[in-house]
Design a protein that fits this description.
heterodimer, A: alpha/beta, Rossmann fold, 7-stranded mixed β-sheet, 25% helix, globular, B: alpha/beta, TIM Barrel, 8-stranded parallel beta barrel, 10 helices, Class_I_gatase-like (chain A), EC 3.5.1.2 (chain A), GATASE (chain A), glutamine amidotransferase (chain A), Imidazole glycerol phosphate synthase subunit HisH (chain A)
Chain lengths: 196, 253
């Protein structure tokens, strides 16, 4: 079964590829529509800025392709945010797979910095994506925008306020943290996705 | 809760890890990939690899080494040393680096920070500053691995760099580096409390108590050390256990 990583103008794609190699899985990095549609599973990674990423996806007609995928899809970081309805980052309409909106962290006090960079605990874990993962496991985050809590929330993290650090709807999953950089916890989550 | 980060730093020279005192007297400290993987396994939160010969000898950071590191390590890592262009950064990120750090080239051409943050995002642009407190009581910026003094004040340069898009500051006190007498608490605190980005304190960590001080008194977001880890004076699991005992938010090993 082919595993495809969607290639587009957002960084960290190599990191995801290497992380999969470390757990013994080979993936194909491609922007070829047919190859993406045929894949058994699809990973939609990304680090970067929402509006330029959405523009690129539209230009390459990947927006429609992603929305209509039927196989399990895992969005990571910006990938997850782009799967939401809307992002405040440069007022961007996103793919709308999840209804949740993406907002900028606005700390009330000066001691919390934006972006959040580092390890935070994740809790209220739901779905098989988090099978065998203990509550309050730590994952690595780098982000200045967050998805609000909503009906599709399957994991929560707390920074400034509680927010969705993972979302799920039908065949679509998204995680705000970087499983490819989250040591053993991240490896387990990637393995869980691969065995969905 | 977001955790304070413990970051082993591996200074790289000719593909080997080295460590000296006050930027000189380098000693061999092992294979960087092996050491990095060991630290990741022991609970390091991030790694920094600095090619300390790169700027001086005008070599580019060893991309192959970065690629090898990326294949073996499951935590984030930053690469620095001799980075002076968007192309340099692009190649390092392509080879699996998560962040890059710039130092001398960014000081000489501050526009570089803006270009990098625009192209790759602030989250992967770390500004490294080597600073020394002079007799006048001011902290000055040094370049070229601590060899060249400038007239710029550390805080002013850090502030300017953050305004240009630097996403994190790696602050090394040359007065403290290699001394094991504790971190530079005053300048670290000034940057950590007055800048909107995370500050990584570096230089001087010699005991577990020093880490408590830099997190509690200076509010550093992360603390970086090298020799105490390389020469097994402090084990990362012990350090993390100690910090937890002091009620500092730490990712358990």
């Amino acid at each position: 079964m082919d595993l495809v990583i969607i290639k587009y103008n957002a960084g960290n794609i190599q990191s995801v590829l290497y992380a999969l190699e470390r757990i013994g899985v080979n993936a194909v990095v491609t922007d070829d529509v047919e190859q993406i549609q045929r894949a058994g599973k699809v990973i939609f990674p990304g680090v970067g800025e929402a509006s330029s990423a959405m523009r690129y996806l539209k230009e390459h007609k990947l927006d429609t392709v992603i929305k209509n995928l039927q196989q399990p899809v895992l969005g990571i970081c910006l990938g997850m945010q782009l799967m939401c309805a809307y992002s405040e980052e440069n007022d961007t309409t996103c793919l709308g797979i999840f209804d949740e909106h993406v907002k900028k962290f606005t700390p009330k006090t000066g001691d919390l910095k934006v972006p959040q960079i580092g390890w935070n605990n994740i809790f209220n874990l739901k779905t098989k994506l988090f099978s065998d993962l203990p509550e309050n496991s730590y994952c690595y985050f780098v982000h200045g925008y967050y998805a609000a809590l909503g009906e599709h929330t399957i994991a929560t993290a707390d920074y400034v306020q509680p927010y969705s650090c993972a979302l799920h709807k039908d065949n679509f999953y998204g995680v705000q943290f970087h499983p490819e950089k989250s040591a053993k916890a991240g490896e387990l989550i990637l393995k869980n996705f691969l065995s969905l | 809760m977001l955790c304070k980060r413990i970051i082993p730093c591996l200074d790289i020279k000719d593909g080997r890890t080295v460590k000296g005192t006050n930027f000189v007297n380098l000693r061999d400290a092992g294979d960087p990939v092996e050491l990095g993987a060991l630290y990741a396994q022991q609970g390091a939160d991030e790694l920094v690899f600095l090619d300390i010969t790169a700027t001086v000898e005008k070599r580019k950071t060893l991309r192959e080494l970065v690629n090898r590191i990326a294949h073996h390590i499951n935590i984030p890592f930053t690469v620095g040393g001799g980075i002076s262009s968007v192309d340099d950064v692009s190649a390092l990120l392509q080879n699996g680096a998560d962040k890059i750090s710039v130092n001398t080239a960014a000081f000489k051409n501050p526009q570089l920070i803006q270009e990098l943050s625009k192209e790759f995002g602030s989250q992967c642009v770390v500004l490294a500053i080597d600073t020394r407190k002079e007799e006048d009581g001011e902290w000055y910026v040094y370049l070229n691995g601590g060899r060249t003094k400038t007239e710029a004040r550390c805080f002013d340069w850090a502030k300017q760099a953050v305004d240009l898009g630097a996403g994190e500051i790696l602050l090394t006190s040359m007065n403290h580096d290699g001394t094991k007498q504790g971190f530079a608490l005053d300048i670290t605190r000034q940057l950590a409390t007055q800048l909107p980005v995370p500050v990584i304190a570096s230089g001087g960590g010699g005991t577990m108590e020093h880490f408590v001080d830099v997190f509690e008194q200076s509010q550093a977001d992360a603390a970086l050390a090298a020799s105490i880890f390389h020469f097994k004076e402090i084990a990362i699991p012990d350090l993390k256990g100690y910090l937890q005992g002091k009620n500092i938010d730490i990712r358990p090993v």
